[in-house]
Design goal:
- By secondary structure, this protein is mainly alpha-helical.
- The protein folds into 3 domains: 90 residues, Transcription factor, MADS-box (SRF-like, 3-Layer(aba) Sandwich); 39 residues; 38 residues.
- It contains 6 helices and 4 strands.
- It has a two-stranded antiparallel ribbon with strand order 1-2. The protein has a two-stranded antiparallel ribbon with strand order 3-4.
- Helix 1 packs across helix 2.
- It holds the Pfam family SRF-TF.
- One of its GO terms (biological process) is positive regulation of transcription by RNA polymerase II.
- GO terms for molecular function: DNA-binding transcription factor activity; protein dimerization activity; RNA polymerase II transcription regulatory region sequence-specific DNA binding.
- It comes from Leersia perrieri.
- This is MADS-box domain-containing protein.
Length: 214
């Protein structure tokens, strides 16, 4: 039962097979070979039963090319397809083309958003059941890389804040240290007073004795 589920592409849910990529390479190759033959057979039956021009192109995971063409030459069908596509595009009105492009862009954006949301959930530890071993290893490496980056930013932030505190403390200490001019002010005042006393004494000595008070 396990081998059959692996070859079939997934487990059954409610009677319906879950379509997802087969992880085992051998089982994937076996499934491709079987289903390719069935697909080519169905294309041949469609062309015979309905008289339809059918072309089928298939590239294997290893790059091998397989094809089916009901026409004698596959290139004739491809040329017909290209001509039909160009003609259909030329017949479309500008408004229809714009609306079609906008629809495609909206679908592309929605797909990208879904991919990002799924990746975000996996990074948060959710919806990991569908991940392969390689995907889990990649997630682990990405988380370790993100954690290292966060720790580095955290250390840089701590160092920056510590340096700011040290600088602020140093500035406060510098502001409270008396300057040389402040230290020299009392000494200058004493020298000035002493000089005034000397000048007064000199003036008294220069006055004649008769004018000196008795």
């Amino acid at each position: 039962m396990a081998a059959a589920a692996a070859v079939g592409g997934g487990r059954r849910r409610g009677g319906r097979r879950e379509m997802r990529r087969i992880e085992d390479a051998t089982s994937r190759q076996v499934t491709f070979s079987k289903r390719r033959k069935g697909l080519l057979k169905k294309a041949s039956e469609l062309s015979v039963l309905c008289d339809a021009e059918v072309a089928l192109l298939v590239f294997s995971p290893r790059g091998r090319f397989f094809h089916f063409a009901s026409a004698p030459d596959l290139e004739d069908t491809i040329d017909r397809y290209i001509s039909h596509t160009e003609e259909a595009a030329a017949n479309k009105k500008p408004g229809e083309l714009t609306a079609h492009k906008m629809k495609i862009q909206a679908e592309t954006i929605a797909t990208e958003i879904g991919t990002v949301e799924a990746y975000t959930r996996k990074m948060q530890g959710e919806d990991l059941e569908s991940c392969s071993l390689q995907e889990l290893n990649d997630l682990e490496m990405q988380l370790e890389k993100s954690l290292s980056s966060i720790q580095l930013q955290q250390q840089e932030k701590i160092l920056s804040e510590e340096n700011a505190l040290l600088l602020s403390d140093l500035q406060c200490k510098v502001q409270h240290v008396p300057s040389e001019a402040d230290d020299a002010a009392p000494e200058r005042e004493l020298n000035h007073q002493h000089s005034r006393d000397i000048d007064v004494d000199t003036e008294l000595k220069s006055v004649p004795k008769q004018f000196m008070p008795k």
